[in-house]
Input
Amino acid sequence: MAIGDQIRIVLVGTTHPGNIGAVARAMKTMALSRLVLVTPRIFPSAEATARAAGADDILARALICDSLPAALAGCERSYATTARRRHLEWPVISPREFAADLAADAVAGGDIAVVFGREHSGLSNAELDLCGTAIRIPTQAQFSSLNIAMAVQIIAYELFVARGGAPIGTGAAIADADPPAPAAEIDHLYQHLLAVMERSGYFDPADPRLLPRRIRRLLNKGELRRSEVQILRGFLTAVQSRLSAKGHDS
Amino acid sequence: MAIGDQIRIVLVGTTHPGNIGAVARAMKTMALSRLVLVTPRIFPSAEATARAAGADDILARALICDSLPAALAGCERSYATTARRRHLEWPVISPREFAADLAADAVAGGDIAVVFGREHSGLSNAELDLCGTAIRIPTQAQFSSLNIAMAVQIIAYELFVARGGAPIGTGAAIADADPPAPAAEIDHLYQHLLAVMERSGYFDPADPRLLPRRIRRLLNKGELRRSEVQILRGFLTAVQSRLSAKGHDS
Output
């Protein structure tokens, strides 16, 4: 199953049907398909369909729920989104970290929900409590009024890029002299880096703590090019051979 | 001058005034302010102001031009945007690479234009020729119909993140246990990495080629956290001390 199929985009109490349509369009450009609406004020609506601009298949398959717990039923994890700078009582990550986390973890197969609040009042604290983690989209402090469909677009875009930006379900090649590194090459880089970290004494496999996971997340979030992976591996090989040339010590 | 002030967002032949308003809002959330409109079909308009949702100051200061060359006058560089997968005759970069390039280069002070085409027909080849480079926003192959304001939002978001995601012109602290690394720390990491690359024999300062620039770009594009910079510097220090402990060779 492609990871895009595991993602539920959940909109809570959306007021403007045009926004629901714009969300569907934003999702479809980034290969997401599962829309869940919690007590939308007006739906279905001609305005939603018009703004969906060809993504009306997503509207047609949208699930309508009467509460957020119902929308989250069966989810392995759920994330709330917020553009607010208030001191949150919940762990807060950036959209890029969220996408890197999903790309790094082998998601077992459960659904992942990303929850977006009302246009004017966002999510309540009780609703935030239902989600494990908050995603804060960075904005200018003086004007953080991000349209809800824009917020969905940014999250969906980060997910799409973290998956390699490749179209799902097609083998279509993109003309690109320096393509993104495929997941296997990132994984080889990860193994290589950990090996040299161990060789240098920086990493102790007997006491790994969070290092392997943090390294994996770091390598996943930069949209590395093949050429960049080659540079980093070339450097690691040089370090290895220099360390080996100098003999072996404990 | 903050880099946000050097960026001109140029919309060519926009048909729907609502999109112009949505673009202004998208820009303002990400601390961009300079909007240039080339032959908009309807402007000003009540619909644009409504969709700007508080970003009407950007609309009020928008420059109207009657041609793309007039809109690009005085720009040091200009970029065209496209969501199309056609084999472009122009160099194509991703939004993240674009943002990393701007963050890595010390932009001397000239303006940078990012040009967005018509809702239905995009930019003409002649218009693309006026821009040095194309930015392609990755989308699903089967549905690449990205709304123009969404495209502006993604580009503006990438620029904002590449600048550290910090609000411009304020010293407001963001509650964040693991904040993004400031530019100076990224620069120290860059210097440190190049030094160890040289020490390991991987990098020859007498023949640097493109390596320093590529490394800088690589470090700028990942939105590194302070803790991640610390991990990488800790590793580099371990490699250095291990190499030194083994004596000095050529």
Remarks:
- The first strand of chain A starts at residue 7 and ends at 12.
- The two ends of chain A are 45 Å apart (CA to CA).
- The CA atoms of residues 100 and 241 of chain A lie 31 Å apart.
- DSSP finds ten helices and seven strands in chain A.
